[in-house]
Specification:
heterodimer, A: 137 residues, alpha+beta, ATP Synthase, domain 1, five-stranded mixed sheet, five-stranded antiparallel sheet, 2 helices, globular, B: 291 residues, alpha/beta, Pyruvate Kinase, Chain: A, domain 1, elongated
């Protein structure tokens, strides 16, 4: 059994990472999951959260804001809507994201959209705020 | 016959025009490189995205559970044309070619009895189509303040289109943009984005059977709107590169033409100067002979 697999992290604007990894922690829409080599092929959507990448060279973390992950037995691709390396992440960045989520929530509520859309916006906002706590900013 | 003074002024003015076109060409060349890089950087995402979508679309198929974005509304009566052009001119036939393709398509659809709605992205397309189709305009997206196209811009356009789709304003959406082939060739392209068609990747994808979390339908419903943004983003980037490429070759031509013109005018100027001198000599000589 191979102990590493190919990992690609791409956002629409650029490709952020492409390396061999031993494990990746993914903030899945239905709960966190860790993908390791020989994982069953899975496609999952992601909620805003922290993507933790463990490779033989060390661990790196990225903040992602939704998107999806395609897990294969020998490769893992994460397609993130927006991805920012943890060490480039600042309070201002996060505030911007939270503000955006808050805005979505507000407009959804004001326009009296179906209940599930409002709910979803509220969840997004909560996820963003939880992200802030997690990063202890 | 223009006077010497006129010719001289003319040469000066063509010279300054050449300076401007030369500068514009160089700016376009620099911007082109950046635009091309941006387009290339976005390719891996689009490629993977389309591959996943193709396998998802293939497995959900035409069942009634498939979202409207994939299946269509079951009609093609109302057509939305999204015409993406540049905000600026002076780039050869770039804007005109896209507008021409869109105009053709709109006329065709109207002849077939369809209702046409037009959404323009970029000022030049709006200006070009206003004369014939002003009554069909439903909106305009202004990107003139945007220096560098980001994914957020594409999302904005996509959101606009999706809101209209949800409100049942149209059945089929097609985007018009110029595909970048190389600096001298940009191909105006029409691409249907709603209902989405993801094909091509099916054969290689079918080998792997994926687990889906949450369900396939839920993922598909989540991803399809993103697919629209992704396609619009790709088109915007292609357009950006095409625009700069078109401007670069147009300005290169203009610079060369200005050079030719300067040469021609200079020859004419020298000839007339010579003629004036000869004339003066003849006058002096014939004056001397008359004494």
């Amino acid at each position: 059994m191979a102990d590493t697999m190919q990992f690609d992290l791409v956002s629409p604007e650029r490709s952020l990472a492409s390396l061999q990894v031993s494990a990746v922690q993914i903030p899945g829409a239905e709960g966190d999951m860790t993908a390791m080599p020989m994982h069953a092929p899975t496609i999952t959507t992601m909620r805003p959260g922290v993507l933790r990448v463990e490779s033989p060279q060390g661990t790196s973390e990225y903040v992602v804001t939704g998107g999806f992950a395609e897990i294969g037995s020998e490769a893992l691709s994460v397609l993130a809507e927006k991805a920012i390396p943890m060490d480039e992440m600042t309070r201002a960045h996060l505030d911007e994201l939270i503000e955006e989520a808050r805005e979505t929530y507000r407009t959804a509520k004001e326009e009296e959209q179906p209940h599930d859309i409002v709910e979803e916006a509220a969840k997004l906002l909560a996820d963003m705020e939880a992200l802030g706590t997690h990063m202890s900013l | 016959m223009p006077s010497l003074k006129d010719l001289k002024n003319r040469i000066e003015s063509v010279k300054s025009t050449r300076k401007i076109t030369k500068a514009m060409q160089m700016v376009a060349a620099a911007k082109l490189r950046r635009a091309q890089e941006a387009a290339e950087d976005s390719r891996p995402y689009a490629k993977r995205f389309n591959a996943v979508m193709a396998s998802l679309a293939a497995s959900v198929g035409d069942s009634d559970a498939a979202p409207k974005l994939l299946r269509g509304t079951g009609s093609d009566q109302v057509q939305l044309l999204v015409v993406m052009t540049a905000e600026r001119g002076l780039c050869g036939g770039f804007n005109a070619n896209i507008a021409k393709l869109a105009r053709q398509k709109a006329t065709e659809l109207k002849a077939a009895g369809k209702t046409v709605k037009i959404l323009t992205v970029g000022k030049k397309g709006r200006d070009a189509l206003r004369r014939d189709f002003a009554a069909d305009f439903v909106g305009h997206v202004d990107l003139s303040e945007v220096k560098r196209i980001g994914y957020a811009n594409a999302q904005g356009v996509a959101k606009d289109i999706l809101t209209r789709f949800d409100a049942g304003e149209f059945d089929v959406a097609t985007i018009f943009y110029a595909e970048f082939v190389n600096v001298v060739t940009q191909v105006p392209t029409a691409q249907q984005i709603i209902p989405a068609s993801y094909e091509g990747g099916e054969a290689e994808e079918s080998s792997a059977v994926y687990d889906y979390e949450p369900s396939e339908e839920a993922i598909l419903a989540d991803l399809l709107p993103r697919g629209v943004s992704t396609q619009i983003f790709a088109a915007l980037l292609e357009n950006g590169a095409s625009e700069q490429g078109a401007r670069m070759s147009a300005m290169d031509n203009a610079t060369r033409n200005a050079g030719d013109m300067i040469d021609k005018l200079t020859i004419e100027f020298n000839r007339s100067r010579q003629a004036v001198i000869t004339n003066e000599l003849i006058e002096i000589i014939s004056g001397a002979e008359a004494l």
